[in-house]
Amino acid sequence: MSSEWTAEKITLADRLTIFVGTIGKSLSDRIIYAGQLAAFSLSTFYWLFARPAKKETLVGACYRIGVQSLPVIMLTGTFIGMVLAVQTHPQFKAVGLESRLGAAINLSLVKELGPVLAATMLAGRIGSSIAAELGTMRVTEQIDALASMGPNPIHYLVVPRFIACLFMIPGLTIMADAMGVLGGAFFSIKLLGVDWGYYWDYSRHAVSQYDVFAGMFKSIFFGGAIALVSCYHGFNCDAGAEGVGKASTRSFVVSFVMILLLDLLLGIFLDKIHVAWFGGGAKSVV
Amino acid sequence: MADQEDLYQDDSSAAEEPQWEGQVYTSADGTRRVLRRRPPVLEACGLGVRIGGRAILEGISFKVRKGETVAIIGESGCGKTVFLKTAIRLMTPTEGTVLFSGIDLGKLNGRQLSEVRCRIGFVFQQAALFDSMTIGENIMFPILQQNPRTPLKELNDRVAELLYEVGMTPDVARRMPVELSGGMRKRVGFARALAGNPELMLYDEPTTGLDPIMSDVINELMVRVRDNHKVTGIVVTHDMKSAKKVANRIVMFYPQSRLEEGQPQIVYDGPSDEIELSQDKRVTQFVEGEAGERLMEMTEAQHAR
After folding, report:
1. CB contact under 8 A, A142 and B129
2. Domain residue limits, chain A
3. How confident is chain A (286 residues) per 10-residue block, as mean pLDDT?
4. Is A285 helix (H, G, I), strand (E, B) or coil?
5. CA distance B202 to chain A (A)
6. Which end is more exposed in chain A, N or C (fewer Cβ atoms within 10 Å of the end residue's Cβ)?
7. Can you tell me the mean pLDDT for B147-172?
8. Closest among A215, A20, A240, A246 to A116, alpha carbons compared
9. Residues B114, A151: contact at Cβ < 8 Å?
10. What number of other Cβ atoms are within 10 A of residue A81's Cβ?
11. SS3 A278
12. Position B2 pLDDT exceeds 70
């Protein structure tokens, strides 16, 4: 049989065709993926309003997503605050603005780092776990079994997780921010010797209620994105243990990219709102 | 037996056959019989399913009448499970329709489809018990779907009754699915499927992966469901012994990929005790479990790719 094969030289035109074909396929795959994710999200929104979620499933999801994530979020927040203090202190000290350290740390925490890093942490902890759990249910036909008994799987499995992420992740972000503020303050005041009064005074002037609101507002979107992406990957998991592993990894990667993209877009949007409502740009920490 | 034969009459020759239930007629052997044609519970009309552009099912048409159990046999990949899932619209057909008690499932909205599914029991290949729930909660699930306000005592009694029916003690209700063996899980799957008092039971390879004794226990349960509960059934299986034991009728699917255009995918549709008499080599080969030239064909197909 092998004698029927003949080696032919690959021409430049062949290479070009392969290149264009690969790019085209990759692009069309991404468009299809985006379309399917959008359709899945629309279906979730439909079931969110069509019928209230079951109390038992909602409470369970809130407990797993909110309460069980609390320790890791508190730890993450504390370290973010302390690391910020370590990294910014030498720079501020060099220009003699050591007393303004609190403003820089707390503003970055509540506006950006708190929500983004908390969401990233939760995408890893909750998102991957949701994708793996639903993926296993898909592979072992539990989702089919559920549908065969009447309930809509999106209503029964996705909606409670979506609601839980939507409400729990902002709460966890508040906790991450609070722990970050305390961690940063402890490190700056106790270990780096920054003056206590100046630290809090400049923080209070630099961080407005709007900044805190902006961080919370973004975290609602991050929570929604994590839930939808993870549930989608779980529902569309390939067969076998490898399929579940891939679904879990993909859900984290896509959630992370979505968090960064949403952070950028919402950051621009919220700044424009700030300018429109309060006038002027962002406050300077110095 | 006369009733049984009437059940299998082919509708294609309906012009020469008695037309209505209760009609007295003379059969080919000269005996006078009363027609007891039962209404179809499930009817596939020109059903076709494509997955990733590949035809899995094409032109599948047959009826499952009330009270009968039909076994669908065929080699792996011929679309048996796909048919079962399409029958309750867990998968969407690319062509054709499925009628359940005369209702076209394709025309139902989500809520109506949920209501119809509550009337059907499905026993999955690996039982598909919900890992996060106890055995008792698994069995209660379909009952609560039909009536969420069922009192707890009634639920517990029903769970105990169903567990007894599948040969298990009530204390199993407190255990988690992971603590049970494969055979026990399948029996719990049975109990769960029966919990909603279904009109139609669908069994997806119920004896696969079980030892011969446990396989026979499962077969016995299917016979009980058919005879005691008078529930119509469709069994997808590779196991000829099981098919003959539980089914009144056997339908054999042939893989679409191995058929030439226009050839029917159903290569046998008749009484289970007459399948050996089939003149079709594809049927007899499967029944006798002989590979014949199959290995050669598979090798050639690989080379052709």
Report:
1. yes
2. 54-278
3. 62 88 92 94 92 86 90 91 90 85 89 90 91 93 92 92 92 92 91 87 88 91 95 91 91 94 93 82 60
4. coil
5. 10
6. N
7. 91
8. A215
9. yes
10. 29
11. helix
12. no
Q: Do B128 and A144 touch (CB under 8 A)?
A: yes
Euclidean distance between CA atoms A137 and B163, whole angstroms:
24
Asked whether A81 and A190 are in contact (CB, 8 A), the reply is: no
Q: Is A140 touching B (CB cutoff 8 A)?
A: yes
Rounded alpha-carbon distances, angstroms, from residue B262 to B147, B226, B258, B259, B265: 47, 35, 12, 8, 9
Question: Cα dihedral sign for B273, B58, B301, B75?
Answer: negative
Tokens describing residue A283: 């406050």
Cα A75 → chain centroid: 17
The closest of A119, A121, A88 to A102, measured between CA atoms, is: A88
Model pLDDT for residues A18-69, shown as the tens digit of each residue: 999 999 999 999 999 999 999 999 999 999 998 888 888 899 899 998 899 9
Q: Is the CB of residue B208 less than 8 Å from the CB of residue B171?
A: no
Strand, helix or coil for residue B127: coil
> Which residues touch B72 (CB under 8 Å, ≥6 apart)?
B80, B83, B84, B234, B235, B236, B237, B250, B251, B252, B253
Compute the half-sphere exposure of residue A265: CA atoms within 13 Å on the CB side of its CA: 9
Specify which residues B252 forms β-bridges with. B73, B268
Identify whether the C-beta of residue B270 lies closer than 8 Å to the C-beta of residue B92.
no
Q: Which residues of chain A lie closer than 8 angstroms to B126, CB-CB? A: 140-141
ipTM > 0.95 for the complex: no
Distance CA B110, CA B40 (A): 23
Chain B residue numbers with beta carbons less than 8 Å from the beta carbon of A141 are: 124-126, 128
Of A136, A137, A152, the CB nearest to B114: A152
Question: Under a CB-based contact definition with an 8 Å cutoff, are residues B6 and B18 in contact?
Answer: no
Contact at CB, B142 and A150, closer than 8 angstroms: yes
Q: Would you place residue B25 in the very low, low, confident or very high pLDDT band (cuts 50, 70, 90)?
A: low
Residue burial B126-148, b: 16+ Cβ < 10 Å; e: rest: bbbbbeeebbbbbbbbbbbbeee
pLDDT tens for B189-239 read 989 999 988 999 999 998 888 888 888 888 988 998 888 888 999 999 988
**Strands (E) located in A54-197:** none
Subunit contact A136:B131, Cβ cutoff 8 A: yes
Using CB atoms, pick whichever of B118, B128, B146 lies closest to residue A140.
B128
Two tokens at B108?
């139902």
- B117/A142 Cβ within 8 A: no
Cα separation, B258 vs B78, whole angstroms: 9
Cα dist from B137 to A57, B37, B114, B134, B274, whole Å: 13, 39, 20, 5, 43
Place of tokens 């042939």: B254
| Interface probe, candidates B91, B92, B120, B122, chain A, greatest A C-beta count within 10 A | B122
Inform me whether the pLDDT recorded for B37 exceeds 70: no
CA distance A17 to A209: 56
